[in-house]
Amino acid sequence: MRVLSNPLLLKWFNAFMRLSSPVRSSLGRKCDTDLRLPLHGECHAGQVYLVGAGSGDAELLTLKAARLLMQADAVVYDRLVGDDVLALIPNGSERYYVGKARGHHSVPQAEIGELMVKLAREGKSVVRLKGGDPAVFARMGEELDALAAAQVTATIVPGITAASAAAACMGIPLTDRGHAQQLRFVTAQLCREDGTPDWQALARKDETLVFYMGLSKVSAICHGLRQAGLPDEWPIMLVANASQPEQQSLVGSLEDMPEKLAAHPLPSPCLIVVGSVVQRVATSPVELAAVSRSSEGAR
């Protein structure tokens, strides 16, 4: 267990001060003496912290997540954790990469659970670092089961999920009184041949659908929703690498999105947002200078 030492606190504090310097300048010199960074608490030996790393932008990481990363004896992390976030881990901490890519799991899920238990039983404080929010399509339930079976104490630290980051970066809400009164997260893994979604239940005009892990299933999603009754012109948006400098996006309709994607392929990870709220992209005041415009109609 590592108590937050002065050098580590200074590292995070200096980063915070650099980011906030324009704001502090506008408030005057008194702000410097009044500013207090709200970091407190310990990272306990023998305990596992299931931490959300957010969408990849280090500035969107929670303060608690940053503190735990700097305190933990060992960090077990995924493929979608950004380099800027990993840079907060001290050189002396143990790192274990267990990243997964579509169609290939570098480390089986059961072995990840065994690794966390092993490290905790060695008396180490362990951060299990997951991209996005650990409770959203991140197999956290299986890892909690493994820890519970081994009687290892766990703490959950939420992170910003990809849906929130993508909507924010594209300048739209996920819910809106005039467009969507409901919000549904769906894993596109259900779009495999052996797990067809209930398209009739998903084809609603009063909600926003967000598909995770669905880049290879865009055609199936568009076809399924159209067959279930949504109009051909119903809005859909694809956002890859949301909130990161390499963010790319496409905006279109259920009818034309497969063709747009074929003409302008997007990288993974990519989020799919379906619903009338997507119409707001065209009129949003949010600055999209960092977004790569892949084609006409893309934002």
Automatic annotation (TrEMBL):
The keyword Transmembrane does not apply. CDD domains: SUMT. Keywords: Methyltransferase, Porphyrin biosynthesis, S-adenosyl-L-methionine, Transferase. It comes from the Bacteria. SUPFAM superfamilies: Tetrapyrrole methylase. Pathway: Cofactor biosynthesis; adenosylcobalamin biosynthesis; precorrin-2 from uroporphyrinogen III: step 1/1; Porphyrin-containing compound metabolism; siroheme biosynthesis; precorrin-2 from uroporphyrinogen III: step 1/1. Residues 48-257 form the Tetrapyrrole methylase domain. One of its GO terms (molecular function) is uroporphyrin-III C-methyltransferase activity. InterPro entries: 4pyrrol_Mease, 4pyrrol_Methylase_sf, 4pyrrole_Mease_sub1, 4pyrrole_Mease_sub2, CobA/CysG_C, Siro_Cobalamin_biosynth. Pfam families: TP_methylase. It is an enzyme of class 2 (transferase). Its EC number is 2.1.1.107. One of its GO terms (biological process) is siroheme biosynthetic process. PANTHER family: SIROHEME SYNTHASE, SIROHEME SYNTHASE-RELATED. NCBIfam families: cobA_cysG_Cterm, PRK06136.1. Belongs to the precorrin methyltransferase family. This is uroporphyrinogen-III C-methyltransferase. The gene is cobA.
